[in-house]
Structure formats: structure tokens, C-alpha cells
């Protein structure tokens, strides 16, 4: 019985890319095509909701300055703290990564599509790639990543550069990639590439050609 269950289990595609690469647009089109998708950023929010043990530990460590008036985590305040201090970022990662991994695994287990997707900007750095059988990297030239992120988040060039440096390098991500989607074109072209990849992925067993 167990063997049959395993043989029908969807394989997992890891989807990643640097900030401003276009991961969200790619992920949304896969969803539109009927693929079960879990976003690690969403899982990261779930584990620090008010009442969750992780939020209490964060407040104990960083102080109430990282809370909003309504008791929610103030992500902007926390981000400033951790990007200014590598040791603080590491502390937070050690606390959150295992909890986020548990949330992700639970959601992936509910997939009913032939393959499921784990979207994560930190797929390589966090070790989440170990949950996947194949990796798709959304790639974009760095100048486009910076332009897009500044426009989207109203961030300064320096803030975007700091985030880029905290993420895996472009070379490191590409080294792990089975597939690369270069996003230096318009949305229509991007969606056509997603549809081409989706048709290919439906032919795979266990993520392998």
C-alpha cells in the first residue's frame, strides 16, 4: 500500500530567483495552469503570526520595537535589524527555517496536481532545495532586478543591493538549476515560456527527463 502511495505522489519543483527577477509572475502563471504551489514567503508569515511561539521568541530577542501596534510583526523594522547585522540574521534563520520547512512540507503533501511547486527566494541558501526533485531558476540581469525592486517597493538602490548580497549569488543559483527561465522580456513572452516548461514538466516522472 505504501509503495503505491509513493508512486503517485507529485514530484516537487523548486522555483527560485533573486529579488526582482519575476518569480511572482512566473508562480502566478503556473497557478493559472492548475499547478499546486506553496510560497515559502507565505509559510514564513504563518509561523510568526500573533500567538505563535516563534513571534514570542523574536520579541524576546529583539524587543517590542519589532512589533506593530496591533501585535503583528513589523517586518520593515525587523528587516533593518537583520540586514545590518549578519549574526542577528543567522539567529533568526536558525529559529525560523525548521518551522518554515514543516509548514511547507504539510502544504506540499496536499498537492493533487502531477507536480507541485515550492517557490522560495532562499531555496538554495535555506536548504529548502532538499525538498525538491528539480529546480527552475528565474534569472534576470542585475540592473533589471534593481530597477524592478526599486519601482515595486519604493526602496533605495542601497537597500536593494543589501538584499541582493544576502541572497545566493546569481552564479550559485544557476549552479543548482536544472532549468533556467531568462526574464528580460515582456509578460506575454514570460507566460509563453512558463507554458512551454509546464508542458515539458507534465511529461516527467519524479522530475527527471
From TrEMBL:
What is the predominant subcellular site recorded for this chain? cytoplasm
For this chain, one GO molecular function annotation is: dephospho-CoA kinase activity
EC primary class: transferase
Q: What is catalysed by this protein?
A: 3'-dephospho-CoA + ATP = ADP + CoA + H(+)
Q: Its pathway?
A: Cofactor biosynthesis; coenzyme A biosynthesis; CoA from (R)-pantothenate: step 5/5
Q: Which residues bind ATP?
A: 20-25
Q: Which InterPro entries match?
A: Depp_CoAkinase (IPR001977), P-loop_NTPase (IPR027417)
Protein EC: 2.7.1.24
Q: Which UniProt keywords apply?
A: ATP-binding, Coenzyme A biosynthesis, Cytoplasm, Kinase, Nucleotide-binding, Transferase
Task: Report the superkingdom from the record.
Answer: Bacteria
Q: Which GO terms describe its biological process?
A: coenzyme A biosynthetic process
Please name the Pfam families in this protein's record: CoaE (PF01121)
Q: Which family does it belong to?
A: Belongs to the CoaE family.
Q: What does this protein do?
A: Catalyzes the phosphorylation of the 3'-hydroxyl group of dephosphocoenzyme A to form coenzyme A.
Q: What is this protein called?
A: Dephospho-CoA kinase
Give the species this sequence originates from: Pseudomonas guineae
Taxonomy of origin reads: Bacteria, Pseudomonadati, Pseudomonadota, Gammaproteobacteria, Pseudomonadales
Name the encoding gene, please: coaE
